[in-house]
Design a protein that fits this description.
The chain is α/β, with parallel strands linked by helices and about 450 residues long. It is about 40% helix and about 15% strand. The longest helix is centred in the middle third of the chain and has 25 residues. It binds 4-nitrophenyl beta-D-glucopyranoside. 4-nitrophenyl beta-D-glucopyranoside (PNW) binds next to loops. Keywords: Carbohydrate metabolism, Cellulose degradation, Glycosidase, Hydrolase, Polysaccharide degradation. One of its GO terms (biological process) is cellulose catabolic process.
Amino acid sequence: RAAERSTDASGFPPDFLWGCATAAYQIEGAAKEDGRGLTNWDVFSHTPGKVANNATGDVASDSYHRYGEDIALMKDLGVRAYRMSLAWSRIFPEGKGQPNQKGVDHYNRVIDALLAAGITPYVTMFHWDLPQALPGGWQNRDTPKAFADYAGFMAGKLSDRVHHFMTVNEVRSFSDLGHKSGTHAPGLMLPPRELNQVRHHAILAHGLGVGAIRAAARPGTQVGVADNATFFVPVVETPEHIAATLRATRQENAMFLTAIMEGRYMDSYLTAQGAAAPVVQPGDMAAIGSPLDFLAINVYTPFYVMADDTPSGYSVLPRTLNSPRMPSPWLYVSPEVGYWSVRSVSDLWKPKTIFVAENGCSADDMVTPNGQVLDPDRVMYLRNCLTHFRRATAEGYPLKGYFLWSLLDNFEWADGYTNRFGIHYVDFETQKRTPKLSAHWYRELIRRNALV
Ligand code: PNW
């Protein structure tokens, strides 16, 4: 580990990969163009009352047409990598069956343009926009199979130029926000057994996807998952609270990342669920536990945790009315998560390589009369998080890269366009992009490869 240590107290490892992230439905628009099929998010956003101001992703940031401009923004920032997702319904408008060549052509153009700009694409196969034609959506066991077919098909098309694939984005989010709270598409509030089955299908899609990508892609292609595991921070860094942090991380992610990394459900999870436990078929757990080349984590809000003598051995601390947070009500400011997210997954499961696939925040952007966009709260948030990610690299944890969420303002799911996560401001009337103060800050950080 010592050899990898940066000598400078603010520096990152010399080959650290700086990037930005986006997702298809949030930026592309062009919802009816070139044969794209309908998705669950088209249906959900067009249902009155589901999204703030009844906004939709029909136009979004218009990146389907403006990807060249977006790539130029990244070139100007100096990022070496871009995490993007593919819209499944552009490739298979019905979710399966006949592929749509125009969809493939589009992503070929985007990837070629990225490579021409010296930016390495990291491709997520599924970031929540599920083809509406698939009967029963994630409740149907055929959907993970359809996903694997689509993922294998695209890996075959792209792996001559794309060397890193992520199967799915945030299994917990599209399972639970979509099927438990109902605040995301398809807006269901399922009882526990059915919810657990959706969760099982979500991680099964990941597992079958890994197999299909490996079967179709060129040798050496790197495959992983992007997951927002629920992370924990020990309030006091003593051995007992650190042990509680690891126990909580493993336990609270039992039906998601823990199952993916261990290839089995924890006994305590199955016991606690009882009759509501998911139906698991032979071979499922082996697929779900497929070895990965890297683990990518989306890092936002953790919980503080402490050791105690309850049966689980830990307690999660409640938030208070004054716990600091950003404009998104779920986004609490706990920058120590930068270190503890990386350390927890590393100590528990020893992945060879870790990426941060997302980290960033909503913030109140101030547009000045001369057109500058000032977002000091975002700079504060990012600087704080990166201070703690840097600690993980300095201690030798295998964190190899960081993708900032997000390159530009976009459709923020149920919040529509009311919460902006970009480091480039988008005027949604004109689609004009303006670098915010945070973009200038990020450019300088990348240039120095050190905190600023
Ligand atoms: C992630 N939560 O979603 C997604 O991957 C992005 O598409 C999204 O734009 C970004 O974070 C910001 O929201 C999350 O409620 C959505 O804790 C909700 C939560 C966390 C992440």
